[in-house]
Specification:
Layout (H helix, E strand, L loop, with lengths): L5 H26 L2 H8 L3 H7 L3 H23 L1 H10 L14 H13 L1 H27 L9 H20 L8 H11 L7
Helix pairs in contact: 1-2, 1-4, 1-6, 4-5, 4-7, 5-8, 5-9, 6-7, 6-8, 7-8
Amino acid sequence: MPRVSQDHLDARRRQILDGARTCFARFGYEGATVRRLEEATGLSRGAIFHHFRDKESLFLALAEDDALRMAEVVAEQGLVQVMRDLLSAPAPTGDAEHPADWLGTRLEVSRRLRTDPEFRARWAERSRQLTDATRQRLERQREAGNLRDDVDVDVLTSFLELVLEGLVSHLAMGLPADDLEPVLDLVEESVRRHRRTG
């Protein structure tokens, strides 16, 4: 029997994660049944659970994958850009796919953090990636003279993370988001260093 190449396994795993992202965004964790996961991925339950032990492991892998991609955006462009990406993402209906659509996963992570202590414990380590990436980006910005120096970097990191969580809650409630770009401009401006003139 020929061995399956690592490239094929990686592509299959990506196919499962992409389909699962759509499914979890559309139906939530509880509503993402195995049958719906099969439909969303185009694969059988055997193929899905060959790569992931169970639905919880699949969701955690998806959330971790999204957190890693968010951390990459933070490293390059900052946490406010992640927020802008969340605003520009299509509504989590599963009708539109977007490579940076983390909203559905992020909403479900936030919900499960509130209601599932076991998930909260498993997620704690993974969420540190985003915090670390944010802190490192802010430290680089401070060294470059672009970040205000009258507030500790840890405080600024917490501030930005609280704004992110507030934005996620706002979007989770289905409140209008059309007018939030100026709010994010204000958030960005509030952490910048202001040079005195005159």
